[in-house]
Amino acid sequence: MTDMAAVFGASLFGLGVVVYMLRSISSIPVKHEKAAQIAAAIRAGAMTFLWEEYRIITAVVAVIVGLIWYVVGSVAGMCFALGAFSSMLTGFIGMCAATDANVRTALAAKEKGEHAAFQMAFFGGGVMGFAVASFGLFCMGSIAYLFSTNPDSYVIYLTCFGFGSSMVAFFARIGGGIFTKSADVGADLVGKLEAGIPEDDPRNPAVIADNVGDCVGDTAGMGADIYESYIGAMVSSTILAVKGFSFPDLATEQLYVQLPLMLSVFGLVGSVGGLMANFVLRLQPAAMLRNASYIAIVIFLALAYGYLTMHGMGMELFISIILGCISGIVIGLITEYYTGSTPVERLADISRSGAATNIIYGLSIGMESTALPVIILAGVVLTSYKFGGGDFGVSIAAVSMLATVGISMTVDAYGPIADNAGGIAEMAGFDPSVRKITDKLDALGNTTAAIGKGFAIGSALLASLALFTAYAQAAHIDTLNILDPMIIVGIFLGGVMPFLVSALTMRSVGKAALEMVLEVRRQFKEIPGIMTGKALPDYKQCVAISTRAALREMMLPGIITVLVPVVIKFGFGYAFGRVAGIEALGGLLVGATVTGVLLALMMANGGGAWDNAKKYIEAGHCGGRGSEAHRAAITGDTVGDPFKDTSGPSLNILIKLMSIIALLLAQI
Amino acid sequence: MTDMAAVFGASLFGLGVVVYMLRSISSIPVKHEKAAQIAAAIRAGAMTFLWEEYRIITAVVAVIVGLIWYVVGSVAGMCFALGAFSSMLTGFIGMCAATDANVRTALAAKEKGEHAAFQMAFFGGGVMGFAVASFGLFCMGSIAYLFSTNPDSYVIYLTCFGFGSSMVAFFARIGGGIFTKSADVGADLVGKLEAGIPEDDPRNPAVIADNVGDCVGDTAGMGADIYESYIGAMVSSTILAVKGFSFPDLATEQLYVQLPLMLSVFGLVGSVGGLMANFVLRLQPAAMLRNASYIAIVIFLALAYGYLTMHGMGMELFISIILGCISGIVIGLITEYYTGSTPVERLADISRSGAATNIIYGLSIGMESTALPVIILAGVVLTSYKFGGGDFGVSIAAVSMLATVGISMTVDAYGPIADNAGGIAEMAGFDPSVRKITDKLDALGNTTAAIGKGFAIGSALLASLALFTAYAQAAHIDTLNILDPMIIVGIFLGGVMPFLVSALTMRSVGKAALEMVLEVRRQFKEIPGIMTGKALPDYKQCVAISTRAALREMMLPGIITVLVPVVIKFGFGYAFGRVAGIEALGGLLVGATVTGVLLALMMANGGGAWDNAKKYIEAGHCGGRGSEAHRAAITGDTVGDPFKDTSGPSLNILIKLMSIIALLLAQI
Predict the structure, then answer these.
(1) Hey, are the CB atoms on A364 and B503 less than 8 Å from each other?
(2) Ramachandran quadrant class, A533 (left: phi over 0; alpha: psi -120 to 50; beta: rest)
(3) pLDDT of residue A450
(4) Among residues A195, B196, B225, B422, which one has the fewest Cβ atoms lying within 10 Å of its Cβ?
(5) What is the mean pLDDT of residues B519-538?
(6) B499·A371 Cβ contact <8 A
(7) What is the pLDDT of residue A97?
(8) What is the number of H-type helices and E-type strands within chain A?
(9) Which residue has the higher pLDDT, A312 or B368?
(10) Global pTM value
(11) Per the CB < 8 Å rule, is B488 touching A482?
(12) Is the Cβ pair B353, A517 closer than 8 Å?
């Protein structure tokens, strides 16, 4: 039980860090009226959306809780609700911090300079980062504390808890992603390309909606996403430990079953270490962002090594732990290469022949970028089998990748805050030097955020493999033979799922963006004096359009994803016998995981490459701003937006959501 | 042996049809000097490219023949060479006919009207269609006649023959695809978008290259592609018949082993029937194109039913045959829906908000369009297992889909001829009414060609499944358990292959198009008087650029595709034991087939939707020519070009090429 004390101690300490950061943000007064007004408008828009979104999600959650309560039992239903509500709470707290920090970052940049601004944005991101780590650990710890004595029900409760967090993450990612990208695309297409006004110009009717989008998509949506990844890795690993081994005694079993939790404790301690290092070392922001993560990983590895040695757990698992950390970093570096180096320069160069070749080349970068990460993850799986901890080792690698989520999520959430601060600075009419600082901080975040996406996808693949193994164990099958038609058909149908869901989410962005474009054009035409600054555009109408579109469009993908595994299992089971249902569902998971991971990589990296090619041209290369190449690059960036911020990230969640539903179906 | 007489009789009769059509085309004199000159330039460009391409392919073929000769034996090497050279010969004959028929179609439209022009283009396509059907059947028949008495070597020889045709098809598709799309994109981007001159305007320096591209890509490349599909289906089915059953007696065995050949005989007879119907009925061209295919299928089904009944082979196989035909048609109709109906109108509508939303929406159409075809093919596989002929039935469904290739390939090859005729009419300065006729004929071909693509992808999936089953049998394994890490890793690595190869081919088109754009821009700048028509552009330079780019860029994808299966088998075999190599290679095939089929569907349908959205706008909707929506639609069409004519179709071949290499590796 000393381990459980560590779990609760660490998570409460982490929550203390969250409260400290929240208070140090809000204790700084906002002494600039216009900036305060703009920030209040962004906050109001974000809160309205989140409120409406959570209301709808709560309704869905209530239905599923009812179903689980009825079919499985009351505690299982409550675990699902815990997963769902803890995710929503995390997103809410993180977004409060972000909307508090954005205006203060802008003011800090104006009054105190780069370092103070960096600190403020970093704290804003830190609230989300440490909230994710602490809430996740606390909830997992609570379930372990209450139910781990009965392995069978423990596994079901964990599954339901993971299901809840996945369900919310899926809706939050898609809803937030559609909101932010419809606003962004709408603002860019009419504002930048047609009216020729710069980004974040207050004359653009969609500008507030665009900034609200950063908060609800890039902050709240991403928070729920990472929370789900973190939980998903721990859940799958714990279930494998409970189900997969026969232990000599109870004490050894406890060690293995609690290892995922302990690794997360070490990761949280490491994250705090990385955070402290930022105070002590006072390096340049760029170095800090990087070092904070590296220091966290080193502390994490040292603690993990000490723990394994102390309990004589053998070094195979440590190999898996190192594999997880290293492969996460390497995939991040590959992401950085494809989204920030030679490929991006070539993409910028080829943009000189127009938008079409920019799109063709960008897609090809995205497609090519799938190869190395998959090869590396294949290496992790094979090495784990040959030298590491086998199936359990693979899941431990996923847990290790995400253990330092406190600090890596901080870096992820810091970027949108800096971005938002720039928008506020622009709209409040601050000196351009302020915008320069926030732009620099934003750019730093982009690169590091790319690494974060590598972690998310890599861990999704490994966690899904672990969930898949757990599924087979729960369904009591040793063999899923691809030569069997049920399985091959299942694989093909599963392979379709990510394509179908991406199609729906991309189309939603396209449709919502069209609505936004027409509205912005209408306002430019019907409200005289917008362009001269004499009349204010109707910002609220644009926020309302994005809100409506996002809430309307997030339902269908969610329903499809939840229903398909159920239909496959019972449909095939009915037509070809119970085993066929289990087999087809197993195939479905494999197919969805393969195409899901590949499409997610393609979309994340392709989107990043387009984004950075545009920025590279804007920095003065290949003709610079206003050139033919620039126009082409803006088109590419606009296509890349839903790729990297809506459809792509939702696929990571999709594959785990389907896996966890399958796992639940196998147990009832 | 009466069956073998039917095989040779039908194939020789088919060749007779080819010779008849060739002669009736060339017997018509070309009495218009300027048109003749243009046609000669197109023909010279096409022949130069084909000659250069075949030289390089021959070198590769020689190396592989040498390897096979050394490792497997001389006859196997010669079978590979037969597959390769018969494919090249088919492509060559088809292209000769196309370059003869294009100018005569233009003249027929000018002098005799629509029906004569249709007849000429249809005959031009017919040469390719019946050459594919007859050569394929003749070569398969010859191998059966010579070697079918020894099952083991028969299977190896068939594998090598199929390998040869796949290898050539892969190069021809990629090389031809890069040529045609670099020329097309280059001509469109500078000519249409920048200089504002219409399509096929003789002032455009890339115009001859564009027309050459239609011949080498859409005719020769597609011919090799369909030849490979036709062979691939027969080969996989025959191998399953040889390997998969234990027969009561030799006579029954012969019946099953020869069934794929006999079905192709019936399909060829049906195709001739469909052709004759065109003479007898003299309907409108649109009705003819459709009816010719339907009549062919009805005759085919009747003959197949009679044959199965006569030999008492049971109705399970007839269910599979019907499933093949119906699913092919249904997938074609789905293709037609996504590339010609509501989705296209919505795509055109959404183009009003610019190129970016056009791209986003078009990609989403492509992605969504993967779902129904896969569900239908899943239904075919499941139905075949429950009511039809099992594994063998699945392969028979693939054979049935392609049995009427004579007529369906005719329709496929007819489109580019009509397209080319339009180009010649434009360049030779014919009256616009001529162009109107050829445009109408071209448009008719587009819809029917979409159905052809559905057949190609559907049969590729079913044939690959059959090859996969044959692989497992040849490698003497009953179980490929996805829970085994070797297999799951193999699946992921295989899943990457189509992404990687698509990335390479798309990038090649992008790079080659950039070269072309720069050259066309240079000519407009440096050759005074092009725009006023006083000076001729340097057409040859543009042809040379496409030729060089295509030949340079087709090598890498080919080498990767051939080497990866070899490396996986021996690499995994070396590191984890022989069985691991077999398992990983099996996984590789499944992974490549899943993502290959899905990406191929997405690219074919997305590309078709973009193409037709542009045409829909050009017909006067959503603002018509010159509107913002039109500019956006041109960008979409340009992205769609490599999708539907280079990368997408090469994936059908990729999955069969990898499967057949694996099958060969399993046997040596």
Answers:
(1) yes
(2) left
(3) 67
(4) B196
(5) 85
(6) yes
(7) 95
(8) 22, 0
(9) B368
(10) 0.94
(11) no
(12) yes
Of the two residues A185 and B108, the one the predictor is more confident about is B108
Distance from CA of A298 to the nearest CA of B (A): 29
How far is the CA of A69 from the CAs of A72, A167, A476, B83, B235, in angstroms?
6, 16, 24, 63, 55
- Find, in chain A, the residue whose alpha carbon is nearest to that of B371: A496
Encoding tokens for residue B133?
A: 């059907």
Token pair listed for A423? 């928008």
Q: CA of A358: which chain B residue's CA is closest?
A: B510
Contact A220, A176 (CB under 8 A): yes
Q: DSSP letter string over B467-501?
A: HHHHHHHHTT-S--BTTSHHHHHHHHHHHHHHHHH
What's the CA dihedral at B413, B418, B420, B426 to 10 degrees? 180
Yes or no: say if A200 and A428 are a contact pair by the CB < 8 Å rule: no
- Cα–Cα dist A278/A297, whole Å: 15
Beta bridge partner(s), residue B481: A481
Report d(CA B180, CA B542) in Å as an integer.
12
Residue of B182, B334, B357 to mutate, interface with A, max A Cβ within 10 Å = B357
Rounded to a whole number of angstroms, the distance from the CA of A147 to the nearest CA of chain B is 29
Q: How many CB pairs lie under 8 A apart between chains A and B?
A: 247
B395: left (phi over 0), alpha (psi -120 to 50) or beta: alpha
Which of A481, A514, A635 lies at the smallest CB-CB distance from B481?
Answer: A481
The reply to whether residue A493 touches residue B374, judged by beta carbons under 8 angstroms, is: yes
pLDDT (0 to 100) of residue A415:
87
CA B242, CA A378: separation in Å to the nearest integer? 36
Of A350, A365, A594, the CB nearest to B514: A350
* Site from A184, A323, A359, A568 to mutate, B interface, most B CB atoms within 10 angstroms: A359
- Which residues have a Cβ under 8 Å from the Cβ of A392 and sit 6 or more positions away? A237, A240, A241, A244, A245, A256, A317, A320
Structurally, chain B folds into a number of domains equal to: 1
For residue A340, the surrounding DSSP H or E stretch is: helix A316-340
**Nearest to residue B395, comparing CAs of B541, B173, B589, B229?**
B229
Of A354, A594, A642, the CB nearest to B491: A594
* Amino acid making up residue A162: G
Give me the interface pTM, i.e. the ipTM. 0.94
Position A637 scores a pLDDT of: 92
Q: Which of B483, B516, B605, B638 to mutate to test the interface with A (most CBs of A within 10 A)?
A: B483
Of A212-216, A307-311, B231-235, B362-366, least confident by mean pLDDT is A212-216
Question: Which three-class secondary structure state does DSSP give residue A421?
Answer: helix
Query: For residue A440, what are the domain limits?
Result: 2-667
The answer, yes or no, to whether residue B140 has pLDDT greater than 60, is yes
- CA-to-CA distance for A447 and A413, rounded, in angstroms? 13
Using CA atoms, how far apart are residues B387 and B591, in angstroms rounded to an integer? 27
pLDDT, position A369: 95
Only one residue has tokens 């494998």, namely: A240
pLDDT digits (tens, 9 = 90+) for B612-652: 999 899 888 988 888 889 999 999 999 999 998 899 999 98
Residue numbers in chain A where pLDDT is lower than 50: none
C-alpha A228/C-alpha A164 separation (Å) is 9
Contacts of B517 in chain A (CB under 8 A): 353-354, 357
| Contact residues on chain A for B587, CB-CB shorter than 8 A | 482
Q: What is the mean pLDDT of chain B?
A: 90
More reliable by pLDDT, B446 or B146: B146
Please calculate the CA angle A281-A285-A290 and round it to the nearest 5 degrees: 80
| Cβ within 8 Å, pair B353-A189 | yes
In chain B, whose CA is at the least distance from the CA of A583? B482
Contact B408, B293 (CB under 8 A): yes
Q: How confident is the model at residue B504 (pLDDT cuts 50, 70, 90)?
A: very high
Identify the band that residue B490 occupies on the pLDDT scale cut at 50, 70 and 90: very high
